[in-house]
């Protein structure tokens, strides 16, 4: 079954400079929780317990986050602040965290290939933490794991986007084999305006079968001179089967300032205000 989740997390997050000058973009908080922690929790909810993180220079706080902080714990022991650490403690105990550094940044396909040593020979999942996905009942990754159990092939998550935005994504086309599930016959990384094969855009959730690594090794740089996972997946789609799942839930593009603000507002109203954590001075504004 799917036991590992790969997090490509070596990017610079230049759109958020200067905030990301010395802080990894994955550590930017949506309300009171770093972006990557939402992704890790989504993976845990999908029954995945090994987090494999592809990092780069200056990402130490990411590793520290998924580790105990004895000094802090000592300081707040016995106070009402202690409960604020409960969620992250549970996350740390529910999973293992391993890291590898990406030496050069040559695209998402290259980042995934870098993670091969951590992932090994089994099918695995990939989460791009920038894409924050929220679905109260069943997370997007859990939806995909359920499908993987049935179909045993690579799966990408897709959503419909306006036609004038398709150039920002990998875009698929395919045949709908059952409700919201497509067998992919074409996929293009960031197509030029007006040339997209459909309006079904890939968002940052993947399940990949391990043969993807060999394909990636032979994938030549594509869009923007980078090794694209979309190109490797197209090869898999032509030779066998790749599915695209139109997921249930909300997705926020936290790689953009607008998406980040939207996610913040949504999580503040729907998660933070409704949680029982103490020391949140929201009780009077709860609605
Ligand atoms: C990457 C993928 C792209 C996908 C997108 C989802 O692009 O290359 O196919 O649609 O993630 O967020 P990036 O946003 O890293 O440029």
From TrEMBL:
The keyword Amino-acid biosynthesis does not apply. Keywords: Nucleotidyltransferase, Transferase. It is an enzyme of class 2 (transferase). SUPFAM superfamilies: Nucleotide-diphospho-sugar transferases. Belongs to the UDPGP type 2 family. Pfam families: NTP_transferase (PF00483). InterPro entries: GalU_uridylyltTrfase_bac/arc, NTP_transferase_dom, Nucleotide-diphossugar_trans. It catalyses: alpha-D-glucose 1-phosphate + UTP + H(+) = UDP-alpha-D-glucose + diphosphate. GO terms for biological process: UDP-alpha-D-glucose metabolic process. Its EC number is 2.7.7.9. Residues 9-266 form the Nucleotidyl transferase domain. It comes from Candidatus Enterovibrio escicola. GO terms for molecular function: UTP:glucose-1-phosphate uridylyltransferase activity. This is UTP--glucose-1-phosphate uridylyltransferase. May play a role in stationary phase survival. The keyword Transferase applies.
């Amino acid at each position: 079954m799917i036991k590992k989740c790969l997090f490509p997390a070596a990017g610079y997050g230049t759109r958020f400079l200067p905030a990301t000058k010395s802080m990894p973009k994955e550590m930017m908080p949506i309300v009171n929780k770093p972006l990557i922690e939402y992704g890790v929790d989504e993976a845990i909810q999908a029954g995945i317990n090994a987090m494999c993180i592809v990092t780069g220079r200056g990402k130490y706080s990411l590793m520290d986050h998924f580790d105990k902080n004895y000094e802090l714990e000592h300081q707040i022991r016995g106070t009402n602040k202690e409960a604020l650490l409960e969620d992250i403690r549970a996350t740390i105990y529910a999973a293992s965290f391993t890291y590898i550094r990406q030496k050069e940044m040559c695209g998402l396909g290259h980042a995934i290939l870098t993670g091969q040593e951590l992932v090994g020979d089994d099918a695995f999942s990939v989460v791009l933490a920038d894409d924050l996905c929220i679905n109260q009942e069943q997370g997007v990754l859990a939806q995909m794991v359920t499908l993987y159990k049935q179909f045993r092939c690579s799966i990408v998550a897709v959503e419909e986007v306006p036609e004038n935005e398709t150039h920002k994504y990998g875009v698929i086309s395919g045949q709908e084999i059952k409700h919201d599930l497509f067998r992919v016959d074409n996929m293009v990384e960031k197509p030029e305006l007006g040339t997209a094969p459909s309006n079904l855009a890939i968002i940052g959730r993947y399940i990949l079968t391990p043969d993807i690594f060999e394909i990636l090794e032979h994938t030549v740089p594509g869009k923007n001179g980078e090794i694209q996972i979309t190109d490797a997946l197209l090869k898999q789609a032509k030779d066998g089967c790749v599915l695209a799942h139109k997921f249930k839930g909300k997705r926020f593009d936290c790689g953009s300032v607008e998406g980040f603000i939207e996610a913040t507002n949504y999580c503040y109203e729907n998660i933070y205000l409704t949680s029982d954590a103490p020391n949140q001075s929201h009780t009077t504004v709860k609605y």
